[in-house]
Design goal:
heterodimer; A: alpha+beta; three-stranded antiparallel sheet; 53% helix; B: alpha/beta; Lyase, Ornithine Decarboxylase, Chain A, domain 1; TIM Barrel; 2 domains; nine-stranded mixed sheet; eight-stranded parallel barrel; 13 helices; 22 strands; globular; binds pyridoxal-5'-phosphate
Chain lengths: 87, 455
């Protein structure tokens, strides 16, 4: 998982993708997750962090996390070329 | 860390920003949580009575009734409301209206008996509808109820019953007419333009066996055009004056039926109903002016009867529901499944109901389709709604569901839930219990030869 490095994200959740000119809003927990992905935190670490901080359980969060990642992908915010290079 | 020390969880979302145009999900829907109904907490109602749960506000019924009545009594000296039973015939609801002074308006033997059982005097019951049996008519005649005749077959039956009972039944006719509204409701009553109504009135007067009391119409429901009511009032007044001229007989009342809109938003409307539907004052103005200007002698002004249903009760009804699950559809659209379906909320086919979360939330929202719990494709409560991020188990309050849902609901797939009423002091009363399997199976019989099977 790698967020396209051109994508900028502000502290208050404003996301801009200069490649497409699209902008997005993300809620605070989403900002935390995107920032962790940007820092190359592995999935397990992100989940552990969220479960410690927020009142939710692992199966509930898993589902939401997966959904969120799918949405990031569908908005082309992942750097897929890079991902392929890495593999 | 204990779960309670942790931060309230909200699922992560990302939402594309589109340049300021309202999309098909509409403008922002409802951005304050509805944690209480009449100062009673939604969570406590769910804890005590379960979910889904219908809640009726006695205070709202009384306030709406008094405001509506005032709109008319300010403009016209003689006004009487008759509670339209089919709109919501829960006994507790009917009792509130009767305490406020409403008569009963019924359209079947079942509803008639309900009104009698509620303690309404027969002479304060208006009996409408195309299907009255001989025994219904006999009962109504013996109780001095107001029989509103729908068709000639019924007229002849009432004349026969008058002979049989040796009483003079109190009757009116239902009139249908062109009020400039499409579609025109012409299936009930006698038509004005073709002279059917005048013909029926002549038959009644010449029979000398019936006491002609009034004239009735009900021109449609959720009417958005006050002028249609002035047309209807003029036409009924015209008939009343013609009867007076020809037979020297005074028509005691003109009954304009129901049909005023509530504040709900019709599907497909761009603006919320609250902002765009005409107010009761506009209807009252149209009707009162038409009657006052119609040419009645000031001392013989007919009583104005209104059978207002929807507009008097919609606001007072709420449906509390709970989130069962959140899903992402293959189209990418968010779907939320709640435990209240169209079987108990069939007005979702007509309205974009206001839906409010019952707990605090952040300002982040997602465009969502709101599904009921039935295993049926048609079970959609809102096709497009912008909702805050709800978790499984969160509660929602659906507003303005007081009209027709609690009478037209279906026992289908699930059992019907409890209904409570919050009284003027904030006390909660169970006014209809939830169904159990026995409610239904008690009515069923399995033939002896089908009882046994081996699987
Ligand atoms: C004869 C009659 N009166 C009154 C009503 C109540 O109408 P509404 O709920 O539109 O006010 C109806 C509803 O269909 C009706 O048929």
């Amino acid at each position: 998982m790698k967020i396209n490095k051109n994508v900028s994200i502000s502290e208050n959740g404003f996301v801009f993708n200069p490649t497409t000119g699209e902008s997005f809003t993300v809620n605070p927990i989403g900002v935390e997750i995107i920032n962790m992905i940007k820092m190359h935190s592995p999935e397990e670490e992100i989940k552990k962090f969220i479960l410690e901080k927020y009142a939710t359980d692992s199966s509930g969060f898993d589902k939401d996390f997966y959904d969120f990642i799918q949405m990031l992908k569908s908005y082309n915010l992942f750097d897929e070329e890079n991902e392929e290079n890495e593999n | 860390m204990k779960n309670t020390d942790k931060i309230k969880y909200e699922r992560p979302i990302i939402k594309r920003l589109d340049a300021g145009i309202p999309n098909k999900f509409g403008l922002r829907t409802e951005y304050t949580p509805m944690t209480h109904i009449d100062n009673v907490s939604v969570k406590s109602l769910v804890a005590e009575f379960g979910s889904p749960l219908f809640v009726v506000s006695e205070k709202t019924i009384r306030n709406t009734y008094n405001q509506t009545k005032r709109a008319f009594t300010l403009r016209y000296p003689k006004v009487q409301f008759a509670w339209s039973y089919k709109t919501n015939y829960l006994d507790a609801v009917c009792h509130v209206f009767h305490q406020e002074g409403s008569w009963a308006e019924v359209v079947s033997g079942f509803e008639y008996d309900k009104a009698i059982a509620n303690g309404v005097n027969g002479k304060n019951i208006i009996f409408n509808g195309p299907d009255k049996s001989e025994s219904d008519i006999e009962k109504a005649i013996n109780n001095d109820s107001l029989l509103h005749i729908d068709h000639l077959d019924e007229l002849y039956m009432v004349i026969e019953m008058a002979e049989k009972t040796n009483k003079k039944p109190k009757v009116s006719i239902r009139v249908n007419m062109d009020t400039g509204i499409y579609p025109m409701w012409d299936r009930f009553g006698f038509n004005y333009e073709t002279g059917q109504a005048w013909d029926a009135l002549n038959k009644i007067m010449f029979s000398q066996k019936l006491e002609l009391m009034g004239l009735h119409c009900h021109i449609g429901t959720f009417m958005l055009a006050p002028y249609a009511y002035s047309t209807a009032a003029y036409k009924l007044a015209d008939l009343a004056l013609a009867v007076e001229k020809k037979f020297n007989h005074n028509i005691k009342y003109i009954d304009l039926g129901g049909g005023f809109p509530s504040k709900n938003t019709l599907k497909g409307s761009f603006l919320p109903g609250n902002d765009s539907n005409p107010s009761i004052d506009e209807f009252a103005e149209a009707i009162s002016s038409a009657l006052i200007n119609a040419g009645f002698h000031p001392e013989k002004l007919p009583l104005l009867i209104l059978e207002t249903g929807r507009a008097l009760i919609d606001d007072a009804g709420y449906l509390i529901s709970s989130v069962i699950a959140n899903k992402r559809l293959s189209s990418g659209k968010r779907a939320t499944i709640i435990d209240a379906g169209v079987n108990i909320m069939f007005t979702s086919f007509w309205y974009d109901h206001k839906v409010s979360p019952a707990q605090p939330f952040t300002h982040y929202t997602e465009d969502t389709v709101l599904y009921g719990p039935l295993c049926m494709n048609i079970d959609v409560i809102r096709e497009n709604i912008s909702l805050p991020l709800l978790n499984k188990g969160d509660n929602l309050v659906i507003s303005m569901v007081g009209a027709y849902n609690m009478t037209q609901w279906m026992q289908f797939i699930t059992l019907r839930p409890k209904i409570v009423m919050i009284d003027l002091n904030g006390k909660v009363h169970l006014i209809r219990d939830s169904e159990t399997n026995a409610t239904l199976t008690d009515l069923e019989r399995v033939p002896e030869h089908l009882k046994k099977f081996d699987l």
